[in-house]
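Annotated sample (chain length 171).
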Amino acid sequence: GSWLMKGFAVMNLIDVTIENAVSLLKSDLLGNGEDPDLHLRMSAVFKSIFKLPEVGIGFTSYDELNGQFRNISFGQQIKSFFLSDRNNEKATRRLFEHAYDLMIAHETYFAVADVQDFWLDHPNTPLRYNFEKLGVKSFVLAPIIKNNVLLGYLELTSPRANDFNTVNANK
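Output written by the structure step:
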């Protein structure tokens, strides 16, 4: 539609797409977790935030006491791209030094825009095999922290390179 204004108006228009999507996500996660459509709604939220046609969502918990990533979900099964078919694994074995430093020591996200380029720089990382097998071309691993305790990582993946990067991972 169009607008016709006469006189003087001071307007401030803002885009609340991300705020609205995050609010919906929080509501879903604070629910009982038994909703069979939770994964679909979470996917829709992240598609909206990142304006992408396909977003894979996973979750990997982190056991700080044992220094292990674990394939445990809340409510319903949300698969772990990071661990794939493993139940748990030592954090240092799964990550190379830079990613370990970002994700565990600094509790911040880790983003890879193009996994093919990433594998060229880090050919022996165990992450490679899981993501290649699952067709992941770009990803973000974002920390989930509650009461200053790292609970795990939200995994956002895409079958297309450059969908995720260090710039849009800040969303």
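Annotation: The longest helix spans residues 17-30.
Annotation: The first strand starts at residue 56 and ends at 63.
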